[in-house]
């Protein structure tokens, strides 16, 4: 509760602003999209460089209506942002029950209606028959190593994968995992020591 007084609305990308539940905030520019958030006990205030990188790539690729999978959703900030940008539906997963509960609370703070949150160890509980146009994962490389080989099974034709949580020093390893999985990196963006990949 003491920490809350130091956390304020932050404009993270051209269109997206993350605002805490307890702060009055109204969009200041045309086209500005606000994602309400109460991070609570789950990782993800939206301000970490790895999150900003995913949001930048999301803005670049979302055309509207995409079936989206957010793996390791944490506070749900990426799922909420994807919804605000116009994707069609979001399935958000997290292995941690606290994160699942936190994401559900945050989703309820926003004018969203097409986000489902489930407890899952990566893709284990994702229905076998579901295909996604967009898969998001802002997770440490040790976990990405397990995730990447599974992604092609859920990625629709011409689907796209956004990976973040990657230190520059570990980027070559992640690229190799993507190549081994039959995925092609099309965009790379960086923020300090962090990198995000679009494949």
Could you describe the 3D structure shown?
By secondary structure, the chain is an alpha/beta fold. Helices cover 26% and strands 29% of the residues. It has 5 helices and 10 strands, in the order βββαβαβαββαβαββ. The chain has helices spanning 49-61, 77-85, 97-108, 141-147, 171-180; strands at 10-11, 16-20, 33-37, 67-71, 89-94, 115-119, 132-138, 155-167, 187-191, 194-198. The strands form 2 sheets. A 7-stranded mixed beta sheet has the order 6-5-4-7-8-10-9, covered by helices on one side. The chain has a 3-stranded mixed beta sheet with strand order 1-2-3, covered by helices on one side. The longest helix has 13 residues, at 49-61. It is globular and about 45 Å long. It starts with 9 loop residues before the first strand and ends with a strand.
Briefly say what this structure is.
The chain has 5 helices and 10 strands, in the order βββαβαβαββαβαββ. The protein is of the alpha/beta class and 199 residues long. It is globular, with a radius of gyration of 16 Å.
